[in-house]
Write a structure and sequence with these properties.
The complex is a heterodimer of chains A (96) and B (473). Chain A is mainly alpha-helical and 96 residues long. Chain A is 35% helix and 4% strand. In chain A, strands 1-2 form a two-stranded antiparallel sheet. In chain A, a hairpin with a 2-residue loop joins strand 1 and strand 2. The longest helix of chain A has 18 residues. In chain B, helix 9 packs across helix 12. With 473 residues, chain B is of the alpha/beta class. Chain B is globular and about 60 Å long. Chain B has a domain of 222 residues: Amidase signature (AS) domain (Amidase signature (AS) enzymes). The chains are: A mainly alpha (96), B alpha/beta (473). At the A-B interface, helix 1, helix 2 and helix 3 of A face helix 9, helix 10, helix 11, helix 12 and helix 13 of B.
Chain lengths: 96, 473
C-alpha cells in the first residue's frame, strides 16, 4: 500500500509546476493515494521477461524529407495568441 | 423522428437543388439556439458557416463540384482546432484561444463540403466520463436533464441526439466517443489507432488518442469516416490501408463468430445492462452468428494499466501550457518560474492537476519501472490476449458501460469511481483496435450501448457487421 503525505503532494506539485494550497494538498493525498493503490496492483504481475509496447501499430522512426514546408500559417496569426510580445518577439519574464 | 435525413440523402437533396446548404445551416443554428439549455455547445460558428453555405449553394447553381458532404452541417468537439470561433478544450487555460490553423479532420470535411456550425462541450482536455470536468458547464443528457451525457465527448453525443446537426466529431482516448454515445443513444465509432489524423487536435494521451464520428446510425458514421480517414504527413502515427471504403454493403451475418469475454461476467455490470446484453446475444444467435466464449486472464488489469499510461502521457502533453506562447497567462507573475506555476495553478481545473501529478509520480525516478514500464509491459500481454482471441472469433462484444447514464453530481467527489466507468472501453484503446458503440434499448427507458470490437485495421468489417445487426437489437 502506498501512503502519501502532504509533503509528497507538494513535491509532486513542484515537479509539475503547479501550486497547491494546504487545503488542496490534504484532499489530493487521498485522491492520488486511492488511484496509486488501484494501479499498483500491476506490481504483483511477473512481467520481467516481457518487452514493453510504446507504439501499438508497429511504426517507428517515421521521417519526412528534410525540406522546407510552407504550412501557410502567418507569423502574425501565431503571435496573436501570445500573451506578451514586443517587436514580433515573444516576451518572457526574467528567470531570477 | 429526427429532423435530419441520413447523410447521403441530405447530400443528394443539396446537390439536386431540393434544398440548400444555407437552409440546412440555418436549421442547425436554430436548433442549437432552441436547445441551448442542455449546455452541449461551447461556441457557435455562425458567420463562417453561413458564408460557406452560400458559397456551396452558389457552386451548385453554377454546376461546380461540391464534394461528398456538400452542405452537411456538423459539430466538432472543442478540442479540435477550427476557424470561426475559439478552441478551448473546455479549459480556462485555453479560453480565448483562436486557432491559427485547422485540424486535418476539419480541413478534410470542409474540402468535401461539410460545414462546421459549432464546438461541443467536453470534460476539460477530455479528462472525464461525464462532462462534469468541463471548466465551463455540465452538459445534460438529452433523455433526462438530471443525468450526465457521458464523456468526455458528451457535448458531441448530446448534440447529435438533440438533432443539432446530422453528425458530430469526438475524440476517444479510453472510451470518450463510445461512452457518451452509449449514454445518449448514439452510434460512436473509435477507429483503429492511426487511421484518422490527430493533427490540430489537442493531445491527451498520444499513444491511444483517436478521432471518430458520432452519428444516429452506422451508415452515417461510415460515410464520415471515409472522408476523415487517411495518412497525413502532419501526423506521423497515421497508418495506410489498402482500401478506404467503409460504407456498408450487403453483408452475411451467418457464419460470423463473435466472442463474449468470460472474465467480464463476474464484474460489476448492472442488471438492466446485463439483461439487454444477454438479449442482444440471443438476437445475434437467431441471426446466424456463432457466439463463443473467449478468455482474457489479464483483462481485469486493463483499467489499472490505462490509469498509469494515460496520466503519464497527459503530464507530458500538458507541460506546453506555460503562459508563454498562447493561452491564459497570470499577469501578476514577476519571474519565469512564477509565471509557469501561477498560470498553471489558475488555468487548470482540479482533474487536470490530479492527472498531471499522477503522471508525474508514475514517471518519476524510482517509480518509473514499477508503474509506467510495468504498464507498458502489460500492454504487450494484452495485445497478445486480443490477438489470440481474434484467431478464434471475428468480433468481440461487451456492453459499452457497466451501467446507464448516472446522475449529475453523483460521482464528482469520487474520482476513482468515475474512472471505473471506463472499465469496458479502455482495452480497445490500449491495444489500438477499432470499436463501435451502437444503441440498444431504443425507445425504452435510458439508452444502453453495445460495444463491438474487431482486430486492428478491420474497421470496414466492423462497420459492416454493426450495420447488419444495428436495426435488430
Amino acid at each position: 500500500m502506498t501512503k502519501l503525505t502532504t509533503d509528497d503532494i507538494f513535491k509532486l506539485a513542484k515537479l509539475s509546476n503547479i501550486l497547491v494550497t494546504e487545503l488542496e494538498a490534504k484532499e489530493l493525498v487521498g485522491e492520488i493515494e486511492v488511484v496509486l493503490n488501484y494501479v499498483g496492483q500491476l506490481q504483483k504481475l511477473d512481467l520481467a521477461n516481457t518487452e514493453p509496447t510504446y507504439q501499438v501499430t508497429g511504426l517507428s522512426n517515421v521521417m519526412r524529407p528534410d525540406e522546407e514546408v510552407d504550412y501557410k500559417i502567418s507569423t502574425e496569426d501565431l503571435l496573436k495568441n501570445v500573451p506578451e510580445t514586443e517587436n514580433n518577439y515573444i516576451k518572457v519574464r526574467r528567470v531570477l | 423522428m429526427s429532423q435530419w435525413q441520413d447523410i447521403d440523402l441530405i447530400v443528394s437533396g443539396v446537390t439536386s437543388g431540393q434544398t440548400t446548404a444555407l437552409s440546412l445551416v440555418e436549421k442547425s443554428l436554430k436548433t442549437i439556439e432552441d436547445k441551448s439549455d442542455y449546455d452541449a455547445i461551447i461556441s457557435v460558428i455562425k458567420d463562417r458557416a453561413i458564408e460557406r453555405a452560400k458559397l456551396i449553394d452558389a457552386k451548385i447553381v453554377s454546376g461546380e463540384k461540391v464534394g461528398r458532404l456538400a452542405g452537411v452541417p456538423f459539430i466538432a468537439k472543442d478540442n479540435m482546432l477550427t476557424f470561426g470561433s475559439e478552441t478551448t478544450a473546455a479549459s480556462n487555460i485555453l479560453k480565448g484561444f483562436v486557432a491559427p490553423y485547422q485540424a486535418t479532420v476539419i480541413e478534410k470535411l470542409e474540402a468535401e463540403g461539410a460545414i462546421c456550425v459549432a464546438k461541443a462541450n467536453l470534460d476539460a482536455f477530455a479528462h472525464g466520463s461525464s462532462t462534469e470536468n468541463s471548466d465551463f458547464m455540465t452538459t445534460k443528457n438529452p433523455h433526462n436533464k438530471k443525468l450526465v451525457p457521458g464523456g468526455s465527448s458528451g457535448g458531441s453525443a448530446a448534440a447529435v441526439i438533440l438533432d443539432m446537426a446530422p453528425f458530430a466529431l469526438g475524440s476517444d482516448t479510453g472510451g470518450s466517443i463510445r461512452l457518451p454515445a452509449s449514454f445518449c443513444g448514439a452510434v460512436g465509432f473509435k477507429p483503429t489507432y492511426g487511421l484518422v489524423s490527430r493533427n490540430g487536435v489537442i493531445a491527451m494521451a498520444s499513444s491511444t488518442d483517436v478521432i471518430g464520428p458520432i452519428t444516429k446510425n452506422v451508415r452515417d458514421a461510415a460515410i464520415v469516416l471515409e472522408v476523415i480517414a487517411g495518412q497525413d504527413p502532419l501526423d506521423s502515427t497515421t497508418i495506410g490501408l489498402d482500401s478506404y471504403n467503409f460504407t456498408p454493403n450487403s453483408y452475411k451475418l451467418k457464419g460470423k463468430t463473435i466472442g463474449v469475454i468470460k472474465e467480464f461476467k463476474n464484474s460489476d455490470i448492472s442488471k438492466s445492462v446485463q439483461q439487454k446484453f444477454d438479449h442482444t446475444i440471443e438476437i445475434l444467435k437467431s441471426l446466424g452468428v456463432k457466439v463463443i466464449e473467449v478468455s482474457f486472464p489479464l483483462i481485469e488489469y486493463s483499467l489499472a494499466c490505462y490509469y498509469i499510461i494515460a496520466p503519464a502521457e497527459i503530464s507530458s502533453n500538458l507541460s506546453r501550457y506555460d503562459g508563454i506562447k498562447y493561452g491564459f497567462a497570470d499577469s501578476n507573475a514577476t519571474t519565469l518560474s512564477e509565471l509557469y506555476n501561477q498560470t498553471r495553478s489558475l488555468g487548470f481545473g482540479m482533474e487536470a492537476k490530479r492527472r498531471i501529478m499522477l503522471g508525474t509520480y508514475v514517471l518519476s525516478s524510482g517509480y518509473y519501472d514499477a508503474y509506467y514500464n510495468q504498464a507498458q509491459k502489460l500492454r504487450t500481454k494484452l495485445i497478445e490476449e486480443y490477438d489470440q482471441a481474434f484467431r478464434k472469433c471475428d468480433f468481440i462484444i461487451t456492453p459499452t458501460s457497466p451501467d446507464v447514464a448516472f446522475e449529475i453530481g453523483k460521482n464528482v467527489d469520487d474520482n476513482m469511481k468515475m474512472y471505473l466507468t471506463d472499465v469496458l472501453t479502455v482495452g480497445a484503446s490500449l491495444v489500438g483496435i477499432p470499436a463501435i458503440s451502437i444503441p440498444a434499448n431504443v425507445g425504452n427507458d435510458l439508452p444502453i450501448g453495445i460495444q463491438i470490437m474487431a482486430g486492428q485495421k478491420h474497421d470496414a468489417d466492423l462497420i459492416n457487421f454493426a450495420s447488419a445487426i444495428g436495426g435488430s437489437i
